[in-house]
Amino acid sequence: MRFDELDFEPSLIDGIDAMNFQEMTPVQEKAMPVVMEGKDLIACAQTGTGKTAAYLLPLINQLLRKPSHNKVRAIIMAPTRELAQQIDQQLEGISYFVPISSVAVYGGNDASAYETQKQAMKNGTDIVIATPGRLISHIKMENADFSGVEHFILDEADRMLDMGFYDDIISIVKTLPIKRQTVMFSATMPTKIKKLAETILHEPEFVNVAISKPAEGITQQAYICYETQKRMLVQKLLANNSVDKTIIFASSKQNVKDVYNALLRMKIKVGAMHSDLDQAFRDEVMLDYKSGKINVIVATDILSRGIDIEGIDMVINYDVPHDAEDYIHRIGRTARANRQGVGITFVSEKDQDKFGMIEQFLEKEIDKMPMPEGLGEGPAYNPQLKGRGGRRKPNGNNRPKANSQKTKTNGNGNNRPKPNVNDSNKPKADVNGNDTNMQNANGNDGSQKPRRYNNHRRRFNNNRNHNNHKTQQGESTKNDSVG
After folding, report:
1. Spatial contact of 254 and 245, defined as CB atoms under 8 Å apart
2. 277, 365, 426, 467: least surrounded by Cβ within 10 Å?
């Protein structure tokens, strides 16, 4: 179905032509007519399927057909500042020929940006694109009047809930008129999303686009390796590969820094993206990557969703993603728009179970590649042996030992005490692979959450300093959203 087959305003058609939109994607074809009718909608669609245009085009079309009233008329919520920026850029292109105003409201910027956001909302901009934490900050400061909001859209709702924004979303909804159109897009449909939909949507239509498989154009590969082999492995792959654009995903800020420094020593044009970097620096890295000044980015999961970069040839999972959905989002950065790409995952001895579950979810075995010459052999791959690194016993007896938390195979067949299966004092990642970075409460999306302590391991390691065995146990934090 073509875009010009729908009843769009002529000025909006000009913007569609300028953006070179021609054939609709499946989610656009199914979702846009529903949104244009003013109905509530919940759509299950993966990043990269064209969902941003699926709600922006009908939203703009509806706003054009109603008189403006010097109040905010539509709010689009996004989980991260990067996604908010991308939505803002696409809105700017689509609405170039139409009299629609908008403002992007997110943290990680200076006081002048906050003041610009404040004035735009007070003056009644048509569309506000916002992250939850920063919008809550403006609401508390009474910087915005949302009594005129007619449309409320949540993009990547599942990730917002994973990051702990459920209460913030409900607080924002309470400031909106009861009579409004609410549209929700989510890559997955867990119970918590259904609960949110029941709370804030009214008799919604449901659109589901199959999302649980990577694009056909992605060649998926895996290297079964020891943790200590990873850095040399990534150096070997990049030294022997002529790809133009690569993203390397790591699950902790420390791993990002280590890999980044190793590649710098190889004279590779590389950038880093994680939450310790301020927003201006991260924007500069993205600009350099898009322009070709650098061709490799080492990043945490802040780049795994909602970032649309053309021409990415290869994605490397330096660490196995937390689950299959994160895996799909990571490797989905390549092979976009029917292109070809490669998705490579390093599977260390401690992550075999996790990778086995991903293969089970995908209903396929991912090709296991031989280790490059000079790196030695990796461990045997046997994800059924949870916590044993995949090493089979010579006699074929695969029964796990009792109290397996206190021992771990080190790859040489020797069991040694392992006081902490998480490596240490390195920065940890949350359940989505995001950096756990507590941010301030001055208009930001990171609220302080209490840390949990693993008392069992602390007793096992009671002769160490108290500060050396704090570990964060997968707390969902608001880390890379709004700074």
Report:
1. no
2. 467
